[in-house]
Design brief:
The chain has seven helices and three strands, in the order H-E-E-E-H-H-H-H-H-H. By secondary structure, it is α+β, with helices and mostly antiparallel strands. A three-stranded antiparallel beta sheet has the order 1-2-3. A hairpin with a 4-residue loop joins strand 1 and strand 2. Helix 1 crosses helix 2 and helix 4 crosses helix 5. The longest helix has 21 residues. The protein starts with a helix and ends with a helix. One of its GO terms (biological process) is iron-sulfur cluster assembly. InterPro entries: NIF_FeS_clus_asmbl_NifU_N. This is Iron-sulfur cluster assembly scaffold protein. One of its GO terms (molecular function) is iron ion binding.
Length: 163
């Protein structure tokens, strides 16, 4: 059962869409449940000034994507990286146990967007963020190798909706 706040975020997501010329992009997915998230950030003076998402997924995937944008907007990159799944779950008033992975995907998408921003701008990246990125990339490689046709189709659909 979903909380009222989770359903509110699902029915009326905050910050949904794509940012033109984002400073960082995070893309994550989970082939088992089929959720795919893109998270876009704009950064000015080390703060997330704008953040949007596009998610193909269930109620929890969309709600957690919406909530992470609300939690991260206006935060410094360091503070945004401190956000965890428990922050999202708490802000939503809980999630069914089988949907906890959606909050992890949202956190991973944010981490990947920040990693993308830092590396594109040749800024220092913490060891923790590098390790996190490597784990996310390993999972992504396994998914893409095992489900090549699915991931290729999903990328084409995403590009088609934005082109």
């Amino acid at each position: 059962m979903y909380t009222k706040k989770t359903l509110k975020h699902f029915n009326n997501p905050k910050n949904y869409g794509k940012i033109k010329d984002p400073d960082g992009i995070g893309k994550v997915g989970n082939i088992i449940c089929g959720d795919v998230m893109w998270l876009y950030i704009k950064v000015k003076k080390d703060k997330i000034t704008d953040i949007k998402f596009e998610t193909f997924g269930c109620v929890a995937a969309i709600a957690t994507s919406s909530e992470i944008t609300e939690l991260a907007k206006g935060k410094t990159l360091t503070d945004a990286l401190r956000l965890g799944k428990d922050d999202i779950i708490g802000a939503l008033g809980g999630l069914p146990p089988v949907k906890i992975h959606c909050s992890v995907l949202a956190i991973d998408a944010l981490a990947e967007a920040i990693f993308d921003y830092l590396t594109k701008n040749k800024l220092p990246v913490s060891e923790d963020l590098i390790k996190r990125h490597e784990v996310i990339q390993k999972h992504k490689e396994v998914i893409e190798e095992k489900y090549h046709d699915w991931t290729e189709m999903e990328e084409e659909m995403h590009e088609g909706s934005n082109g």
